[in-house]
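Schema walk-through. Below, the input block comes first and the output block second. Nothing else is stored per chain. Lengths vary across the set, and this one has 322 residues.
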Amino acid sequence: MTKGFTLQHLEFWVMDEADRLLNEANEEWLSKVHTAIEQDSLSGSSDICHTPASSLNASVIRRADLMLNPLVQPPPRIQKLLFSATLTGDPAKLARLKLVRPLYIAVTSDEDAVSNGPAAKYTFPSTLSEYFSICPEEKKPLWLMYMLQNKIVGRGVCFTKSLETAHRLAQLIQVWTDGVPSEEWPGGKKVVVAEYSSEVSFAERTRLLRLFKEGNIDLLICSDLIARGLDIDQIETVINYDAPTDMSQYTHRVGRTARAGKKGSAYTLVGVTQAHHFKTMMLENGHWGPMLKRFDPRNKIMDSLRDQYKVALESADSVYAQ
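--- output ---
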């Protein structure tokens, strides 16, 4: 612990994305924080917390005083506030948080309860419109191009399964948009896309977020890892370019939009080989029904994009190979 730093007067411990803290990778960090809090609160002074030995001895003495002397005032109890869209119900994992008389609160409304249905295991806002499409894997870029050129989706984020997919898809869409004349876009305004991943420097990601908030970027193509925790008011649409592998991942992705009573939409492109798994996942979580609508592009418009797609794909492949 940093010299001179103490948790003695800590009253509230706020944990955002609490489900991630309960992963095995963070277990050591969680126990260290708990130990530091306990030592500082029992010691009664930060002056003796500079060495592990003095902290340990002070904690033992203080605990003995509490047990033997009823007049000794116990340390104040810290209130822990956990926030997560998908908090686990596993007792073993929750035990690591050392909660005392925990209270579970689900933020929802009467409209949300009706739209989600009685069997739903996850709660989604009633202002969220959800769609899915079944398409061959190799045609996903074409379907995304169709959605962008016809302004079916608003400004938002597009999730991919990996860093490489995000990089290649961003290059492909950028090459395609550059090759389409402005007069062929609705309103004469081209769609602007950008890659938002760990391949991009922190300074550049900060700049991209600023441009997105200002309306100068329409779509951020992201990998799951870098986009977790994105909180931008301007996100109108979420596109699952690669279908989520579990309901927790789906919930966190679509949770980027339709926040604080605002309307939002989520589109999931499901590969043909993933269709059975996707439907089973939704059924098991009570989320297969009228809240999830099927979306299919119009063939005539798709046909007009095929040549553009082939040209863009060849150009992007040559750029990627350099």
